[in-house]
Amino acid sequence: xxxxxxxxxxxxxxxxxxxxxxxxxxxxxxxxxxxxxxxxxxxxxxxxxxxxxxxxxxxxxxxxxxxxxxxxxxxxxxxxxxxxxxxxxxxxxxxxxxxxxxxxxxxxxxxxxxxxxxxxxxxxxxxxxxxxxxxxxxxxxxxxxxxxxxxxxxxxxxxxxxxxxxxxxxxxxxxxxxxxxxxxxxxxxxxxxxxxxxxxxxxxxxxxxxxxxxxxxxxxxxxx
Length: 224
Hints:
37% of the residues lie in helices and 11% in strands. The protein is an alpha/beta fold.
């Protein structure tokens, strides 16, 4: 867990989330399946994210933490986004999370749950701009799918994160609090506990398949 010197501003955010009921383990608002019966339709969980969510290097989309978390829960995953993208950052594909939502997801029937995961690529932008963009996306989703449960997952850093990453994390958390949705913080955990190469690819940033498994094992129970 990171020192408080790197987490300026997060304590009020956590307090707000506790007051609003958005902190900690959250329910996905999906009907439970009675024992011994088969569901007529598995719940649908959509994701908007960056390369951590859609896959990178030797890890394809169907082996990312997003797909693995859905499989653990018995849900149908629909994954949108692209590497290098963020709430503000457009990456090489030239679109933000909001634009990925519009192009890849908004035309579909509403899912049971939408997970918006990212912020890693937004560290070059001001925290205020990131917060404003995140608020705009959440407002857009809420207006388009008013009955869909929304969860925001902050930036993923498997190893040491720069100070600016914490500012971005706090900005995204504040946007989630304003929207009244749950915020989950991957930066509040220590992911490398043994051999670094076991969970981090040689690029020093992205997860190995085992790293994605760790992320999915953390995320799935919070959505169940």
